[in-house]
Amino acid sequence: METAETLLRLAVLLLAGLGVLIALLTTVLGWVLTHPPRVGAGAAAARGWFLDPADAGREFSEWTLETRDGVRLPVWEVVNPQQPAGPVVILSHCWGGSRRESLQRLGFVYQRASRVIIWDMRGHGEAGPGMSQLGTAEIDDLLMLMDRVGGERPFILYGYSMGAGVSICAAARDAQRVRVIGVIADGPYRWTREPVHALLTFNGLPSFPILNIVHRALCVLIRGLRNSERAQFARQLKCPLLVLHGADDPVCPLNSALEVAQAAPESEFVIIPAAGHLNLHQTDAHRYQATIDDFMRRCMDRASPAPAQGVALDA
Any idea where the domains of the chain sit in the sequence? Predict the structure, then answer.
């Protein structure tokens, strides 16, 4: 009898310990996800990146977008004086990225753009105060950024990983205003739990039951996360969608990205062989550049009214 009671107490202690461990892991992971590492000037310099657009030989201005809830988002506005009739491209970074990281991708869209807008999203780079909302409130921020930029030129939204999903969702939300003529999505995921699962796997942690607990906790913490599935937004697009994805992406499953592309009324899905996540532009820079360049050209051709046909008059 005493042995049974001892075993029962041990079992209770083990379960209590396991519960505490899961709660601790959930808290830590939730904090890490909403407070990603900041990529500022120091980190950029250590990696040998351009520190600002002037380093890349481009004209630019710098300003700050303040959101309705008081978050300050730093912005670079890069001007291309050689292409005044081009679209305005807004470049949105990944989770854990920043405008300094996005700056390294400027060359892929600069030649066809009249302006390129590069910004720090909530909880990233030099934005503040506040934490990342994992691609939810960032959608409203991007729409506000479009309003602030304004002008007569149409928009092409270009994002990678989390920024890809934010770009798709913002274009869908803005569909009635017909300001967005194309979306370029590099390495998108359909569900937020997919990159969280990859983060757990990368750190050698079991996805069950931590993944479900963390996701439910984040859904309570972050308004809109529960309904942030990307394919439902892709269905609402009124413009072409280009999805670029690495064949060996360990973070965002290939099938997930394909489902996002297939949901859109008009899309193109391009697989970069041997590429993983966030390195498509480095794995095959030539194909990456050619695909984006052709997509932007076609978007502009569709958006530009056809020239009026002359009417021959009898002499």
Answer: 53-302
- Give the sheet arrangement for strand 241-246, strand by strand: 59-66, 72-79, 115-119, 88-92, 155-160, 180-186, 241-246, 267-272
Quick one: pLDDT at residue 208? 77
Q: Which CATH number fits domain 53-302: 3.10.310.30, 3.40.50.1820, 3.40.50.300, 3.40.190.10?
A: 3.40.50.1820
Give pTM, 2 decimals: 0.91
Determine the pLDDT at residue 18: 64
Burial state string for 198-214 with b = 16 or more CB within 10 A and e = fewer than 16: bbbeeeeeeeeebbebb
Q: What distance in Å separates the CA atoms of residue 107 and residue 109, rounded to the nearest whole number?
A: 6
Is the CB of residue 272 less than 8 Å from the CB of residue 244? yes
Q: Kindly write down the DSSP assignment for every residue of 101-116, as one continuous string.
A: HHGGGTHHHHTT-SEE
**Assigned token pair, 189:** 């995921």
Q: Please state, as a whole number, how many other Cβ atoms lie within 10 Å of the Cβ of residue 314.
A: 3
> Among 132, 299, 138, which residue's Cα sits nearest to residue 230?
138
Cα separation, 170 vs 118, whole angstroms:
16
List per-block mean pLDDT (blocks of 10 residues) for the chain, which spans 315 residues.
75 74 79 92 92 95 97 98 96 97 97 98 96 97 97 95 98 95 98 90 81 87 89 97 97 96 98 97 98 98 66 38
